[in-house]
């Protein structure tokens, strides 16, 4: 099996992975996967789950979007945010979900922002459940 390197960069942290064999990302038009020797390219990412498979296990991360670049058998994810299961506060995520639902029901404020908040909270809770 072939492997590649993965680097995740946000404004506040950087995570390096060696010997990754598969990464699944949330693209703007749906999920897509990257494997070793994938064609080079730049991809826009949406709110969603990132799955990272390495030699031993799979890990899951929540992101609020960003960009992916694959070239020279290296994947770089430039993300607004990234959180692992252990970094997500379940109580805070549940409170955010409740607030977003209340904003959508009340028709007060920016509906687009409320929907994005709802999707982010749902995604964070999905990661916790893994």
Task: Please provide a brief summary of the model.
By secondary structure, the protein is an alpha+beta fold.
Number of distinct beta strands = 9
SSE order? EEEEEEEEEHH
CATH architecture of the largest domain: Sandwich
Distance between the termini: 26 Å
How much strand? over 45%
Query: In total, how many domains does the architecture comprise?
Result: 2
Helix share, percent: 25-40%
CATH superfamily of the largest domain: F0F1 ATP synthase delta/epsilon subunit, N-terminal
Shape: elongated
Radius of gyration, taken over Cα atoms and rounded to an integer in Å:
16 Å
Detailed description of the structure:
The chain is α+β, with helices and mostly antiparallel strands and 130 residues long. The chain has two domains: 4-84, F0F1 ATP synthase delta/epsilon subunit, N-terminal (ATP Synthase, domain 1); 88-128, Single alpha-helices involved in coiled-coils or other helix-helix interfaces (Up-down Bundle), CATH 1.20.5. 27% of the residues lie in helices and 45% in strands. The protein has two helices and nine strands. Strands 1, 2, 3, 4, 5, 6, 7, 8 and 9 form a nine-stranded mixed beta sheet that branches. The two termini are 26 Å apart. The model has no long low-confidence stretch (mean pLDDT 94).
Layout of helices and strands:
Elements (H helix, E strand, L loop, with lengths): L3 E6 L4 E14 L2 E6 L5 E5 L2 E7 L3 E6 L2 E6 L2 E6 L2 E3 L5 H17 L4 H18 L2
Parallel strand pairs: 1-8
Antiparallel strand pairs: 1-2, 2-3, 2-5, 4-7, 5-6, 6-9, 7-8
């Amino acid at each position: 099996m072939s492997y590649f390197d993965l680097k995740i960069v946000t404004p506040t942290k950087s995570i390096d992975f060696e010997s990754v064999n598969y990464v699944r990302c949330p693209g703007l038009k749906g999920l897509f996967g990257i494997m070793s020797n994938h064609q080079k390219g730049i991809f826009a990412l949406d709110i969603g789950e990132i799955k990272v498979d390495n030699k031993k296990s799979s890990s899951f991360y929540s992101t609020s979007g960003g960009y992916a670049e694959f070239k020279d058998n290296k994947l770089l994810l430039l993300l607004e945010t990234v959180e692992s299961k252990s970094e997500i506060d379940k109580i805070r995520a549940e409170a955010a979900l409740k607030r977003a639902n209340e904003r959508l029901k009340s028709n007060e404020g920016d509906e687009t922002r409320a929907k994005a908040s709802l999707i982010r909270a749902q995604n964070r809770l999905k990661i916790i459940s893994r």
